[in-house]
Amino acid sequence: MSRRSNTFLLIVVFFAFSLSGCYYSAAKKEIANADKLVSELKGAGGEKQVPYEYCSAEKFLEVSRIEFDSNDFKAAKGFAERSKSSAEAGLAEIKKK
Predict the structure, then answer these.
(1) What is the pLDDT of residues 13-27, one digit of tens each?
(2) What global pTM score does this model have?
(3) I want to staple 46 with a disulfide (CB 3.0 to 4.6 A). Which of 28, 31, 34, 41 is the partner?
(4) Distances (CA, A) of 8 to 3, 17, 22
């Protein structure tokens, strides 16, 4: 291989590892935020008052953790965002009542 090809391959590998690291930290942060909101929803009585939103938030968080453990950080972040959204909707419903 030529020197130019080696340089190109090194650059591609560097960017691949850089992007995967970004997803890792973003997913980890999103999972922590979702966990906090699900705990808050549970503490506010979400299991009984808004069971659909509570169950959705809890299950999306569970799937997010499974995907994170499988090193699929992009999917983990997406499920954590959905969990967070469900928990926020449940908390909003509880505040209306």
Answers:
(1) 766 666 556 788 899
(2) 0.78
(3) 41
(4) 9, 15, 21
